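To: structure desk
From: M.T.
Subject: fold request, one chain
Message: Could you run this one when you get a chance? Sequence is below, nothing fancy, just the single chain.
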Amino acid sequence: MSNTLIKEGKFTYAEAGEGQAIIVLHGLMGTLSNFDEVLNHFSTNGYKVIIPELPIYTLPLLKTNIKNLSKFLKEFMAFKNIDKTILLGNSLGGHIALYFTKLNLKNVAGLVLTGSSGLYEKSMGNTYPKRGDYDYIKEKTEEVFYDPKVASKEMVDEVFASVNNRHKVIRTLAIAKSAIRHNMAKDLLEMNTPSCIIWGKNDTVTPPEVAEEFNKLLPNSNLFWIDKCGHTPMMEHPEEFNKILESWLKERNL
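Reply: Done. Structure tokens follow.
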């Protein structure tokens, strides 16, 4: 996807298609390419899909938190002249989508959460004492998926580089602490936005009970499961993920 990235001012993003906007928010260790299949499918089926690069590692340390990443999303929407969007977030991206929706209900047509944080945070801090151990990082990266083969060498190399970069480690820990502080449980009951929860049955990062809790607390939600699937359904089972989401969007007239 790197060849198709658009850089304008402080924003870097991928964009394709025309129609109702779907803004996709990646996770802490995620990249824009995690959503290649989402971009390709929905941009040719009546949607404008936009995937901004979140400034996780470029914000000042004191501003590296959920609140300021939500502000970044608001600025990005204003820059793109988008008043109302569907938000699709994986992991940290889902948490940012939830926090943004809490403050900007009128600007969110629909919420799509997959492996989202916001209720349950599994600390990554215990990986850092062994950050120099490539095999350990490989094992931890593979645990994100049901099928460890999804974790390509390129992906493992990228995670390994991140956890051995002091600048990135400090910001990763800042985000993790912010995620714990910004637990969304009390806010979800007030968020009547149509919400689609697509979850891997074998997710060990945000286990299935997290999806069930989201579905219980969000007043206007539907929960869908993907079997033999870990933390990133849109990567492990892209066809099934896209089929579920497309059907839900049609049912909700979004």
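Reply (cont.): The two ends are 26 Å apart (CA to CA). Let me know if you need anything else for the meeting.
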